[in-house]
Amino acid sequence: MNNISIQYGIQVAGAIGTAIFVTLMTTYAADSTTELSHTMDAAIAGKKALLDAINYTSLVTIGLAIVATIFSLFIRKQMQEEI
Q1: Verdict on whether the full-model pTM lies above 0.85
Q2: Three-state DSSP state, 38
Q3: Which of 10, 13, 18, 32 could form a disulfide with 49 if both were Cys (CB 3.0 to 4.6 A apart)?
Q4: Collapsing DSSP states into helix, strand and coil, what is residue 56?
């Protein structure tokens, strides 16, 4: 593979990852808004739901980063054994 193909692959992977996290955040915010609007004003519920969704998505991102870091440690050991 040439260098340009790798760069396009990285861009596409980044776009897909961003789309997944935005979808996750939007879905969580919509569900939270529905639940919170029964107990408080709709405008305040929307803002609180968006903040909760951002926090939730950040926690998911941190979790995935930890899992990826653990997996990368195993990949490195296997590559060193093959060499």
Answers
A1: no
A2: coil
A3: 32
A4: helix
Quick one: pLDDT at residue 1?
59
Within 8 A by CB and 6+ apart from 37, the residues are 45, 46
Closest of 46, 63, 57 to residue 21, by C-alpha:
57
Instruction: Looking at the chain, list the stretches that DSSP marks H as alpha helix, in order from N- to C-terminal side.
Output: 3-36, 42-82
The three-point CA angle 30-25-29 to 5° equals 25
Where b means 16+ CB within 10 Å and e means fewer, 14-32 reads eeeeeeeeeeebeebbeeb
Pair of tokens at residue 3: 């260098």
Amino acid at 35: E
- Say which DSSP state 37 is in: T
